[in-house]
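Example record for the data management plan.
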Amino acid sequence: MDNEQKLFDEYSIQSDFVIAGFSFGAIQALEYALETSKRVDTLQLFSPAYFNDKNEKFKRLQLLYFQKNPNLYCDNFLKSAGFEEGIESRYFSLGSYEELHTLLYYEWSAKKLEQLVEKNINIEVYLGAADKIVNASAALEFFREYSEVYYSKNKGHRV
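Corresponding structural encoding:
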């Protein structure tokens, strides 16, 4: 996705001291917050790409389907995520096999979240209970100890 910030205007905090990311961007936002020496007050994670609960077979199949037909894979992803326009979405940007691999195999760790909390960074996580991309219940259980989680009953991956 590119330039999808408008999708989260109702939730996002506009400030120089806030980092936000959606799905794969949530991974990038978290890593940036850990590495930067700049002031960060809040980290907002919108539908973080949480696949800690998925097994190796699931991940390999996702990569295989992407490798066979990246456009079809992404079209199905976008539809499952709630983008009615499918691959023609104005926010769509075809990612690479390597990016998908990073997304699927990224290990969300308590240690990283604890480091952010120790840096006095407020973590907000936005999840949709009707998410068809990630297991929102598993993500809720993981993130709730370290962050303020907003769990919307009738929302999907787009929160």
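Summary line stored alongside the record: The first helix runs from residue 24 to 35.
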